[in-house]
Amino acid sequence: MIPRSVPRKISHNEAAAHPPRGSPTHHRIYFLNALATIQVPNSLLRGVPVTQVAADGTTQTATLTLSRDKFTVTLSSEASVAGFFSKSAVMTHRDVDISEMDRIQRGQSTQYFERAKKKADRMGILPKSELFRGSSHGSSANNSYPSPSSVASSATALHPELSFSIIFRGAHTLDLMAATSETRDKICDALDRILLAYQRYKVRVAHEVLLLRYVWLNVNDHGRLGQHMPVQQFGKVLQEINFVMKQRDLQSAYDHFGKVIGLDRSSRRKGLTFEQSATFLHKIKRDSWMVKPVQVIWNDMFGEVMNNGKMRTTVSDKTFLEKFLRGKQGDAKATLVDVRKLFRRLHEMEIAHATPEPIDPSRISKDQFEAFLHAPENDVFDPEKERFNKVDMNQPLSEYWINSSHNTYLIGDQYTSHSSVEMYSEALYRGCRCLELDIWDGGRAADGTPVPVVWHGHTMTTKILFVDIIKTIKVFLNFHPDTFPIILSFENHCSIPYQEYMAEKLVRTFGPSLYIPTEASLYGALPSPSKLRGMVVIKGRRPDGTEADAYDTDDDFSDDGEDLFLAKELEARNAELHKKHRVAPQLARLTLLHGHKLQTFEESMRTPSYFMHSFSENKVRSYCRSKSVYSWIDYNQTHMSRTYPAGARVDSSNYNPLLAWSVGCQMVALNFQTQDAFLRLNDGRFRENGNCGYVLKPSALMIKDGYSEASSPLKLSVKVLSGSCLPKPKGQRTRDCIDPYVKVVLYDVLKEEKEIATSFQTVVVHQNGFFPIWNEKFNFLVENWAVAILQLTLHNNTKDEFIASASIPVSCLRGGIRSVKLYDETNSRTGAIDFATLLLDVKIGQIVAEI
């Protein structure tokens, strides 16, 4: 996670690049040169030879080049084009903008690299065992690696130390290999520095300016930001940013604007510079609003006319503090010092003012006020709750909700889809800290070494190597050594030799990062996330030596008996799942969290704290509606519970996690490969506490008989005012303008332990994603504020397509006029989605009981 930006001193070089706002040239966009001083290898600016790994696993030579302004990387390679008589080679270029990049990832933890490795000689170490044949039950071509005899010799050695991936727009990758490890590291270090600098600088720039820079190169025929854009090209800009304007009206507005800024006819034909285009875009937005919410808020808060009778164009710091921050936003702790710091930042922001006259530093303009409304400081998600709090990380593990994944290895459904190592990397970067591995015997290597594999046993899903998964996790740990504990949840179907091999590999791969509990540490409270920071924890089986407990069978296995879909095909799977498996001592001693079968919660509360249970979603509902629910809540105060989707969810759909959270379950495991509304609830829950994967449970769930405290109802009013810079679905650029609407849903749990979702929907705004206006109010009753989550989802009315969303726990909501940062389906804010926000008016109030 990129650290939150903090105020800092401006260097002499930066001061020269950012002259005072009162200067005549303050409308210039200095952000365009923000990355110029970042040091990068000259070879990267000239073009570095690399090997590209394609989607099918094939490799080809390419050149990676960083643009002179350091905002764009370009991958150039030859492509074969079929002509009438013969094929010819043409150069292709793929540009990735810095704003689209999510991270730079070293190693080979992507699907493209996996496919390349399957094609390479590396897979030839495995014989034609079950790994290649697949299971006799539900056998499929998808279920095996290519036979070594059918794998062509790879011309390119796939060395992990040479490999890296550029992850962009959520789930897209450029997978590359450098000539040497030194070159790889120099490229990755340079791109990391540029990404960090971009994240630091962009908060000084208005969203409209960032959006224009993002679309400029794609639309402008000249390509470079220093060139001019004629009116015909500007029409394409409006199309890409989702605003429809008739060509006649655009031409008229363009000519008028050109005259206002002093351009003669020849200059107007030549076109506008980037800075002029930004100001023109701002003017279009300002003049096109019929009933502008910001104007209404401005007038309501500060008055349309000042005391001297003039129209109000600015507001003072004292008036802003008293009437807006304290009066409207309810921020009683705000001080004049805070406001003056905020005003300094707003005066440093690059906003495309239509009239860039100097402004008194103790005042802000209407444009600066609007920029503040959409800024991170004004987000509806309380920054204090979003920020990481290290003080809260010293309680036992049982006192936290833990971001957890189910069947982490799958990229699709539970029966026929592929397994991928990449899913572990994706889950970790999404904030997940409990990963699941279904581990089976997978044949032996040529030297007789056992080869454990991970797959959804006795189905047609594909297999991946256990060792590849733990290597991927180790790579993540290497670059994130301060991460809070990563829990590996083993569903162990392996025979003793394979378990012994697993234990050896775990110790060798993770070394001191593997938490190995001592016998003395097993009694008393569980360790805290702080104590386990940077470590891997094993959840599996740690038998106590009695005959009844010496086998690997627990709630994970018994509840999986609900997998009764496709009964004939899965009859053998269910029989296998219910077999008892003896646990190898070498693996048992590495295990902290011991799964065992539930008899009663009262009995389980007498077991050591490292004993835990697992429950399917159906069992969760059953227990929540029984008299045992309060015993379960008490159990979860000192012990761990993991829940997971019902086996009948063959499509890998998710269940609502709120019910399990409401009784204190720590590991509420979801299918991360299915990016649905329930996974987005999970994203919102763990946005709290810096997305570190651990959120301290509410106090009502941690004190005896305190559960009723969380059920005091609240009134919640949400008025959806407007949107800003809303993108097209899936980051597309060439489609028609969107017709957006917003779906507002409150997910809650009633006192009767039942989930409820109260849903409303705005009207559709046609052909305007740049600044749509709704002004629609919705009222909710919140029954359980400690777990309830408000979810706002942006849709395109055409085909009812998902565009973006945000999920905010009610306990993290702030009242007042607030902005909402939107996220794509991968929970990312990269590319065009990075500039997208909604504007809300939120009111939260207690319900006073009638006497």
UniProtKB/TrEMBL annotation:
Name the record gives this protein: Phosphoinositide phospholipase C
Pfam families (alphabetical): C2, PI-PLC-X, PI-PLC-Y
Domain named PI-PLC Y-box: residues: 590-701
Assigned EC number: 3.1.4.11
SMART domains, per the entry: C2 (SM00239), PLCXc (SM00148), PLCYc (SM00149)
Catalytic activity: a 1,2-diacyl-sn-glycero-3-phospho-(1D-myo-inositol-4,5-bisphosphate) + H2O = 1D-myo-inositol 1,4,5-trisphosphate + a 1,2-diacyl-sn-glycerol + H(+)
PROSITE patterns xref list: C2 (PS50004), PIPLC_X_DOMAIN (PS50007), PIPLC_Y_DOMAIN (PS50008)
InterPro entries to which the protein is assigned, alphabetical: C2_dom (IPR000008), C2_domain_sf (IPR035892), PH-like_dom_sf (IPR011993), PI-PLC_fam (IPR001192), PLC-like_Pdiesterase_TIM-brl (IPR017946), PLipase_C_PInositol-sp_X_dom (IPR000909), PLipase_C_Pinositol-sp_Y (IPR001711)
Protein species of origin: Fistulifera solaris
Low complexity bias spans: 139-152
Domain named C2: residues: 697-824
Domain of life: Eukaryota
Keywords carried by this UniProt record: Hydrolase, Lipid degradation, Lipid metabolism, Transducer
GO molecular function: phosphatidylinositol-4,5-bisphosphate phospholipase C activity
Matches recorded under Gene3D superfamilies: C2 domain, Phosphatidylinositol (PI) phosphodiesterase, Pleckstrin-homology domain (PH domain)/Phosphotyrosine-binding domain (PTB)
One GO BP annotation of this record: release of sequestered calcium ion into cytosol
Stretches the record annotates as Disordered: 1-23, 131-152
Regions of compositional bias (Basic residues) in chain numbering: 1-10
EC top class, as a word: hydrolase
